[in-house]
Design goal:
- The structure holds two protein chains of two kinds.
- By secondary structure, chain A is of the alpha/beta class.
- Chain A has helices at about 10-20, 35-45, 60-70, 85-90, 100-110; strands spanning about 1-5, 25-30, 50, 55, 60, 75-80, 95.
- In chain A, the strands form two sheets. In chain A, strands 2-1-3-6-7 form a five-stranded parallel sheet, sandwiched between helices.
- In chain A, helix 4 links the parallel strand 6 (about 75-80) and strand 7 (about 95).
- In chain A, helix 2 runs parallel beside helix 3.
- The longest helix of chain A is centred in the first third of the chain and has 13 residues, at about 10-20.
- Chain A starts with a strand and ends with a helix.
- Chain B has seven helices and seven strands, in the order ααβαββαββαββαα.
- In chain B, helix 4 packs antiparallel against helix 5.
- Chain B has helices spanning about 1-45, 50-70, 80-85, 110-130, 170-180, 205, 210-220, and strands spanning about 75-80, 100, 105, 140-145, 150-155, 185-190, 195-200.
- Chain B is an alpha+beta fold.
- The N and C termini of chain B lie far apart (about 40 Å).
- The chains are: A alpha/beta, B alpha+beta.
- The interface between A and B is medium-sized, with 20 and 26 residues.
């Protein structure tokens, strides 16, 4: 399972990467910018994405449109409360930060199920 | 008439309080997530006996930067204050073997947090292996803003330096984090004379300089 991670806090992004790799998943992209993430969803084959709801102070909603269009499922993660999401971000599975590793792995694996 | 206006005013004030509580909650959770990430990375590389000490120092460093953020009402942390606070535990070495040079610069919250953590790792490294591990080594920390924000950490007079054979949490924070979060170019070199770290980042990512940027910060600092 090839996963794209869009998370602007580098230490957290690398934790997510490590957790997913340890669970046997393949991380094909790691970025904190919406522009890079959009480019990666066009250029790289992905099966799922983990999107921080807020990248560099900007809502990741424009980013959610790209995987949605291609039928790629994605998990939204955020330190904001669940009800503070809107639009496409509100429709996707959600995981509040901080989270335990096994919960993240289960949530990502469920995307493909 | 007066009553309607009172109610409108009260509603607005309640909305503001709700917004503020939501933002405080968000920031607390983000900081907890960063603390969790620090624990995760530290546990992967520190010897079990060193974990608690290393982890606690890193959390204390984060807390120090957050004190400054709070004191500045999240409107820009003075670079000199940030550098001094991250090195405060060296006591009377400050101003003698540890020197600072740069103009007043207000750093954006995300930049202050990232640079604060980098300075902590540099300081820890210098005390263990570098210029602050001997009796006469020195560290010079300088910064400037001229289009971009530039900060350097230059060690001299310590034991002959060799590059470490593996990249750990320090490298992640000193180089990768600044590169990714601040769009910075970071140079980390190990000439025999002493470690050199230099960060050059776009002012837009690092320096708090205008009203628009400040409002943006208040909306979301993470």
């Amino acid at each position: 399972m090839r996963v794209l991670i869009a998370e602007d806090e580098w230490l957290i992004a690398t934790v997510i990467e490590r957790i997913l790799i340890d669970a046997g998943l393949k991380v094909v992209g790691l970025t904190g910018s919406i522009t890079d993430a959009l480019r990666l969803t066009e250029e790289v084959d992905i099966d799922a994405a983990v999107l921080d709801a807020n990248l560099g102070g900007v809502s990741a909603e424009p980013l959610a449109a790209a995987p949605s269009k291609r039928g790629v499922p994605y998990l939204v993660i955020s330190g904001y409360a669940d009800r503070q999401r809107s639009g496409l971000l509100a429709a996707a599975p959600f995981l509040g930060k901080p989270f335990a590793p096994h919960i993240l792995v289960a949530a990502v694996q469920q995307l493909k199920a | 008439m007066g009553t309607i206006s009172d109610i409108t005013e009260r509603k607005r004030s309640e909305d503001q309080v709700e917004l503020l509580i939501g933002e405080v909650n968000h920031r607390a959770k983000n900081l907890l997530s960063v603390a969790q990430a620090v624990a995760f990375h530290t546990a992967r590389e520190a010897a079990p006996a060193d974990f608690v000490d290393t982890f606690n120092r890193r959390i204390a460093s984060l807390a120090t930067s957050h004190d400054l953020l709070s004191l500045s009402a999240w409107e820009g942390v003075n670079a000199a204050d940030l550098a001094h606070s991250q090195l405060a535990h060296f006591g009377n070495l400050l101003g003698s073997r540890i020197t600072f040079e740069g103009p007043p610069v207000g750093l954006k919250p995300a930049a202050a947090q990232a640079i604060g953590m980098a300075l902590h790792e540099l300081a820890t490294n210098a005390a263990k292996y570098g210029a602050l591990s001997t009796r006469d080594g020195s560290v010079h920390i300088a910064w400037s803003t001229n289009g971009a924000f530039r900060m350097s950490w230059i060690e001299a007079g310590g034991p002959p330096v060799t590059a470490p054979d593996k990249r750990g949490f320090g490298y992640k924070v000193m180089v990768e984090m600044a590169t990714h979060q601040l769009d910075a170019t970071v140079r980390l070199e190990y000439p025999a004379s002493g470690l050199i770290w230099e960060l050059i980042a776009p002012a837009a990512k690092t320096v708090e300089n205008d009203q628009a940027a400040r409002l943006d910060t208040i909306k979301c600092a993470c």
